[in-house]
Amino acid sequence: MPKPTIKEINKLIKKVDSDKVSDGYHTFGELYDHRIGLYLALCAMVAWYDDRFRVWKSKKHSDGSSIKGWFIMGIGTRQGQQITYHVPMEYWKQSFFAQTRSKAYKFDGHTSKDALERLKKLYD
To answer: Domain range spanning residue 35?
Structure first.
């Protein structure tokens, strides 16, 4: 039996419950929940203790579009500084520490890799 390709594996993963797919230690659902929790905690700490960056949230992207059941939370407002993630709407009230905006700041095009590099700069 031939080994499945990465493309085939990714296609299969989209069809299963992420709470049942595991690396042997954690399910992908658990890891995603951890990422959300850690990002919210980081945003709260930055909002309360570091006035170099504005922490904000919005239910709409800068172009007015939105994703049902999700909002955007960001650290930083300027191009080349932003760290943003979509967060499930169930965390909206818990993110009271963030400035609420009618629309997100204009997206600077950062990738996941860019966000990680910018996160590292926060503690350098």
So the answer is: 21-122
The CB density around residue 47, as the number of other CB atoms within 10 Å, is: 19
Whether 11 maps to a domain, the answer reads no
State the CB neighbour count (10 A cutoff) for residue 79: 12
Flag whether 5 is in a domain: no
Query: What strands lie across the sheet with 70-75, from one edge to the other?
Result: 83-88, 70-75, 55-58, 99-101
Instruction: Quote the number of domains for the chain.
Output: 1
The pLDDT of residue 36 is 96
What token pair was written down for 13?
Answer: 């993963």
47-91 tens-digit pLDDT:
999 888 899 999 999 999 999 999 999 999 988 999 999 999 999
Q: Is the pLDDT of residue 24 over 90?
A: no
